[in-house]
């Protein structure tokens, strides 16, 4: 299991029922957001024609769509949390099985503090940048598909423009991959060192107290904390550079798309409401595209962590092999 996406996809597969429910809610919510945007754009078109009845009807559609979205968002959050916790339990069970399959020397190759960090800090990182980002990418793809289809019905050339800029936004962030991977792994290693220092200092407090060296506790913890801070900031620089670059390209794309919509309206090739629709759906597409690029790089940065959890220790017992992802505890409720 040498790939983050493959490892996490395996765990998602073990909870495919819950995953299908979460995805269904995500897709329906994306459709409701699109319906709200269509309602707003159509309302603008009919009010320009001074058609009161259709105007208030479309306003009602927009309100209904937005309220439905808010209700489903609650259920989406609850089901996503349940899915995350179930996968956390699966991963912890696999790591525990791996540790149990090692011989004495293999187990003590790492400290208990390091193992604690694997089961806490690393799991939290996987939740945020693995599970959370992958579900966010699914939501972003759904919103892009709905928004792109709507733009096509306004005018086909709008969708062509979107596809051109979309290609640029997908390709450009690849330059940040190595930087993100390197800083992500360094950050998790720093977390391990911090947990080791915390355990050493707290377990050795009695000895330090008897030798009047308790001030060493604060010194060591502060030094380890600064080490963690340094690596979190390094990862923040990498992710921030990619985020700023992709968003800058997104803003430029939206402005050019808005100018194109204005030209089409002046040529009477699309309704007046398209100016609102293009702003909404174009903004959605480019924002989600930049988000996908950012979230995908973050998701891929989990790879080294999954590799570390899946790779057997140097002294693991050969007669008790373990393949991470083949073990599963009872389903969480």
TrEMBL record:
Any GO MF annotation of the entry: ABC-type oligopeptide transporter activity
Pfam families assigned to the protein according to its UniProt record, in alphabetical order: ABC_membrane (PF00664)
Main location: membrane
A single Gene Ontology CC term: plasma membrane
Keyword Nucleus belongs to the record: no
Keywords tagged on the record: ATP-binding, Membrane, Nucleotide-binding, Transmembrane, Transmembrane helix
Cell compartment(s), UniProt: Cell membrane
PROSITE patterns to which the protein is assigned, alphabetical: ABC_TM1F
Region annotated Disordered, chain positions: 310-333
Segments forming a coiled coil: none
Membrane-crossing segments per the record: 21-43, 55-75, 144-172
Membrane topology: Multi-pass membrane protein
Record's signal peptide: none
Boundaries of every ABC transmembrane type-1 domain copy: 20-301
InterPro entries documented for this protein: ABC1_TM_dom, ABC1_TM_sf, Type_1_exporter
Gene3D superfamilies: ABC transporter type 1, transmembrane domain
Name under which the protein is recorded: ABC transporter ATP-binding protein
Organism the protein comes from: Schleiferilactobacillus harbinensis
């Amino acid at each position: 299991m040498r790939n983050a996406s493959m490892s996490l996809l395996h765990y998602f597969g073990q909870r495919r029922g819950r995953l299908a429910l979460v995805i269904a809610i995500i897709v329906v919510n994306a459709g409701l957001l699109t319906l709200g945007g269509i309602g707003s754009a159509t309302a603008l078109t009919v009010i320009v024609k001074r058609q009161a009845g259709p105007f208030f009807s479309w306003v009602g559609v927009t309100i209904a769509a937005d309220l439905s979205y808010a209700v489903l968002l609650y259920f989406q959050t609850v089901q996503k949390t349940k899915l995350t916790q179930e996968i956390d339990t699966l991963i912890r069970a696999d790591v525990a099985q791996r540790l149990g399959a090692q011989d004495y020397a293999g187990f003590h190759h790492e400290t208990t503090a390091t193992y604690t960090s694997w089961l806490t800090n690393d799991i939290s990182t996987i939740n945020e940048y693995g599970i959370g980002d992958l579900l966010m990418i699914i939501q972003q793809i759904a919103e892009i598909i709905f928004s792109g289809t709507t733009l096509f019905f306004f005018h086909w050339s709008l969708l062509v423009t979107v596809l051109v800029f979309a290609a640029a936004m997908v390709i450009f962030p690849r330059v940040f991959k190595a930087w993100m991977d390197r800083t992500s792994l360094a950050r998790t290693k720093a977390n391990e060192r911090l947990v080791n220092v915390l355990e050493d200092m707290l377990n050795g407090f009695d000895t330090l107290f008897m030798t009047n060296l308790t001030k060493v506790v604060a010194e060591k913890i502060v030094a380890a904390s600064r080490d963690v801070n340094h690596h979190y900031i390094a990862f923040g620089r990498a992710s921030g550079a990619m985020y700023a670059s992709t968003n800058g390209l997104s803003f430029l794309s939206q402005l050019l798309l808005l100018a194109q919509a204005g030209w089409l309206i002046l040529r009477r090739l699309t309704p007046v409401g398209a100016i609102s629709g293009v702003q909404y759906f174009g903004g959605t597409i480019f924002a989600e595209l930049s988000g996908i690029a950012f979230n995908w790089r973050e998701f891929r940065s989990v790879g080294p962590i999954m590799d570390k959890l899946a790779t057997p220790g140097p002294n693991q017992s050969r007669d008790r092999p373990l393949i991470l992802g083949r073990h599963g505890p009872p389903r969480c409720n």
